[in-house]
């Protein structure tokens, strides 16, 4: 089991819980870290336009520090990608609170559940998971549900 430190300054967001639960499903020989930042619709639209060429509001953006391909993390492969505490920095996740609130209502679950889902989704991208093909999507969704389940966060109606 890996050690994952998630930095997030958002009040009420339990980054330590996310890190501990996600770490159960990560194979790594070195401590890891990631950061989560929350923004508004204009902030994420601007970031999406600058970094992806898409002038639109989205729910979550992930900025992996490197391409892991969804496999095990070997610290020796990334000797220069450490944070100030010596942890291997996976990358950054940016979540739009407003879009998350809209989606929570649309999907019939709480804002809390949607925020953690988006954080887990973003973290999976940092770890190299993707959903471009049906098989990739199936694998990524299964990993997301494992982490959310470990956190005690279920879908609406479960």
Keywords:
single chain; 158 residues; alpha/beta; four-stranded mixed β-sheet; 4 strands
Offer a concise description of the structure.
This protein has helices at 15-23, 41-52, 97-107, 111-126, 134-151, and strands at 4-7, 32-39, 60-64, 88-96.
Report on this model:
With 158 residues, the chain is α/β, with parallel strands linked by helices. It has helices at residues 15-23, 41-52, 97-107, 111-126, 134-151, and strands spanning 4-7, 32-39, 60-64, 88-96. Strands 1-2-4-3 form a 4-stranded mixed beta sheet. The protein is globular. The model has no long low-confidence stretch (mean pLDDT 93).
What helical percentage do the residues reach?
Answer: 40-55%
Largest sheet: 4 strands, mixed
- Which structural class matches the secondary elements? alpha/beta
Strand content: 15-25%
Q: Tell me, rounded to a whole number, the average pLDDT.
A: 93
Which term fits the overall shape?
A: globular
Alpha plus pi helix count: 5
Q: Strand order, main sheet: write it out.
A: 1-2-4-3
- Determine Rg (CA atoms, Å): 15 Å
Poorly predicted runs are none
Number of strands: 4
Q: Sketch the topology as an H/E string, one letter per element.
A: EHEHEEHHH
Distance between the termini: 28 Å
């Amino acid at each position: 089991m890996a050690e994952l430190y998630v930095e997030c300054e958002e009040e009420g967001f339990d980054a330590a819980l996310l890190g501990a639960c996600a770490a159960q499903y990560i194979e790594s020989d070195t401590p890891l870290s990631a950061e989560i930042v929350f923004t508004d619709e204009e902030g994420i639209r601007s970031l999406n336009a600058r970094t992806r060429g898409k002038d639109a509001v989205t729910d979550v953006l992930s900025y992996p520090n490197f391409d892991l391909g969804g496999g095990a993390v070997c610290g020796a492969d990334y000797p220069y990608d450490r944070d100030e505490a010596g942890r291997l920095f996976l990358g950054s996740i940016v979540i739009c609170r407003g879009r998350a609130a809209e989606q929570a209502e649309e999907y019939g679950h709480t804002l809390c559940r949607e925020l953690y889902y988006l954080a887990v989704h973003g973290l999976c991208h940092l770890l190299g998971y993707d959903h471009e093909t049906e098989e990739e999507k199936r694998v990524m969704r299964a990993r997301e549900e494992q982490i959310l389940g470990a956190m005690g966060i279920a879908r609406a109606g479960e």
